[in-house]
Each structure stands twice: as structure tokens, then as C-alpha cells.
Design goal:
- Helices cover 39% and strands 13% of the residues.
- The protein has a five-stranded parallel sheet, sandwiched between helices.
Length: 175
């Protein structure tokens, strides 16, 4: 439903209310600012991998990653993930994203395997429908660091990609 007429009427006081307080629920919402893109790097190795089959969601992630100069690779199996990680050399991924409804990968059995191989250096984030409370609980139990409803994941995607796509900062040496 289009509520753009509310914005047009916001300044007019034609609704019979005296000036001053607005009605609850009609406050102006401010969009979050887009995060700054990371500086483009010449030899960008993938630090973020995603097990996602939904084409619309893949396109959304690719578009957001492109805006932020972050490289995200989509994989279909754990073997493909291991091959791509070997191409990166010693650098482990900083983030692995799972669509917890991706039946082709079986995330609940794959997440514990990845957690044992990658330890704490890699965050694993899963997303699902907001009504799947049981699946959310199971994902946490098998080692998923964060489980978000699809809408919250979409909303926080730029911040997540920026945080995990940035190269590791070398620890400053104290003299």
C-alpha cells in the first residue's frame, strides 16, 4: 500500500488535531546511511563465501558487494568452498553466509564441519524466514554464530559485507 499521501499531509493540519504532538506510529523514519565503499584492492582474494541458491537474493548480495568493493563468491558445495579457500592460500574466509532453507547443501550438517575446520577466525551467518523458530534454534546449536530473519539480513547486509570484506588490519608494533 502506498502511503506517500501521508508525507504530503504531514505539514498540513487538516486532520482536526491541534498543533504539537503527532499521533503515535506516524513519526518520520530516517533511512540508515549507506556505508562507505572499501578502497579497491588489486589482488582481492575472497573473504566472504555464500551458500545461496535464490537468484534474487544472489543478485541483491552481488549488487551490494559491488557498491562496497567487496568480493563475495557463491559456492554450491563444501568441496567447492575448500577449493576456493585453497586458491586464497593461508587466508581463511572471514564470513560464510548460509541460506538455512538451501536443501541442496544441508546447512545443519555442513556448519559443524566448517566450524571445526575454521575455528573462531570465520563467522558463520545464517538467514531464514522469521517464522522458523525451530530451525533458528537448531542452527545456533550446530554452531551458526548469528541467525537472522531474511528481512533483518537484507537490512544489515551492507554493514556485514563491509565489516567482513575489509582486509585484516596488521597489529601495530609497540616500540
Amino acid at each position: 500500500m502506498d502511503h506517500s499521501y501521508r508525507a504530503a499531509l504531514a505539514g498540513n493540519n487538516n486532520n482536526g488535531h491541534k498543533g504539537g504532538r503527532q499521533r503515535p506510529g506516524f513519526a518520520t523514519q530516517f533511512p540508515q546511511p549507506e556505508p562507505e565503499p572499501l578502497p579497491a584492492s588489486v589482488e582481492a582474494s575472497s573473504r566472504i563465501f555464500a551458500f545461496i541458491e535464490d537468484l534474487f537474493f544472489m543478485a541483491k548480495i552481488q549488487e551490494t558487494a559491488k557498491k562496497l568493493n567487496v568480493k563475495v563468491e557463491f559456492v554450491k558445495s563444501d568441496k567447492e568452498l575448500m577449493e576456493k579457500m585453497q586458491q586464497n592460500g593461508e587466508e581463511k574466509p572471514s564470513l560464510i553466509i548460509f541460506d538455512l532453507n538451501n536443501a541442496g547443501v544441508k546447512p545443519l550438517s555442513l556448519i559443524p564441519k566448517l566450524k571445526s575446520k575454521l575455528k573462531k577466525s570465520t563467522s558463520i551467518i545464517g538467514f531464514l524466514s522469521h517464522v522458523q523458530g525451530d530451525l533458528k534454534q537448531k542452527a545456533h546449536e550446530v554452531g551458526c554464530d548469528m541467525v537472522l530473519p531474511r528481512s533483518a539480513f537484507s537490512q544489515n547486509l551492507p554493514q556485514l559485507l563491509r565489516r567482513h570484506g575489509a582486509p585484516e588490519q596488521a597489529e601495530p608494533t609497540v616500540q
